[in-house]
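[Q] Does anyone have a clean structure-token version of this?
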Amino acid sequence: MNAIIDQLVPGGQGIATLGDGKKAFLWNALPSEAVEFEITKNKRTYCEGVATKIVKASPHRIEPKDACYLATSPWQILDYSEELKQKQLLVEECFHQQHIHAAVLPTATDGKDFFYRNKMEYSLYWSNEDNLIHLAFHTRGTHRKAPISQSSIERPEIFAEAQKIIAKLNSEHAEARTYQSLLIRCDQQGKVSSALFENGKAHPVMQSLSDTLNGYKYSYSPNGFFQINLPVYELVLEEISQHIHTDKVLDLYAGVGSIGLSVARNRKLTLVEVNGAAFAEMQNNAAHTNAQCILAKSEDVTEYITPDCTVILDPPRAGCDPKLIAKINTVRPESIIYLSCNPITQARDIAMLNEYRIKKLQPFNFFPRTPHIETLAILSKNL
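[A] Here you go.
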């Protein structure tokens, strides 16, 4: 089938309107391109697929670095300056959909577009051709595994460790079907922690790692939550620190505490996290500070929201609970700092924060060569 791509959508695909009016969401397709494509999912009003031939290429198309790019980083086909521009445009579109016409600043980056991820999870693939295990990723949109020989978005220490582990498994004549996946993480100094997850068995306890952010040390579990791209995360923390003007700070969805403890550890800081493992790490990271650590859902401790505090929000992709949004509107804390990995739900939440206006809205490129966007919104009270 043939299509002409109109634009990119927040999911990362190019969108086209077919002759019958059906929308097509296509991977490996860029705005203005004419493509031939194969359908991978077909519904009544839309279909999904992959461009298999580029009839007319975008001037921004480049050769992908990895053969497995569609599985890991489908925007390897897009030149980096255009990627930054497209992410800015996608954030604008997400907010326009909520009738918010705030200025979106250019996407911030540390300039590094490959070898940035400090965590990677691989599948294992058994080849009947050589009777060996190979590293693999799932083919996008399917449950099929495809073996890989190169991957360039993770730090080199991670891929080297993965190859070492696979070589050891093959020397022991192991079978790929024994394992669910291989998880590897490394710190900024290149120290690696890894674990093979076996089918039907409990996940092993991984060796903890630690990193320094804005001069403060944090420990974390490799299979828990910690930011994937720490140099860009430090850019965000530096920006957030410029907007803390109250003595009281409430950090909700706090994880291991790295935002609040980096920007407000010398203030009256309260950290809230619901995950038990992350909370334990938070307590460890908050030792020797006066920070108060609370194990709870953020929407269940809204009594900590006061008019004289700054509220930091870093929720999961689903966004904030409506009960929390309602409490913020009622109490009207001094300012809101909202970091999000999903500008769609972030825009939805901010549209409901009707007592606030956007002071600053900026995307950060935590995940180069992918469509994922992290956006920081600084909100102040309406006068």
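[Q] Thanks! Anything notable?
[A] Helices lie at 69-72, 80-96, 156-171, 230-241, 258-263, 276-285, 322-331, 343-352.
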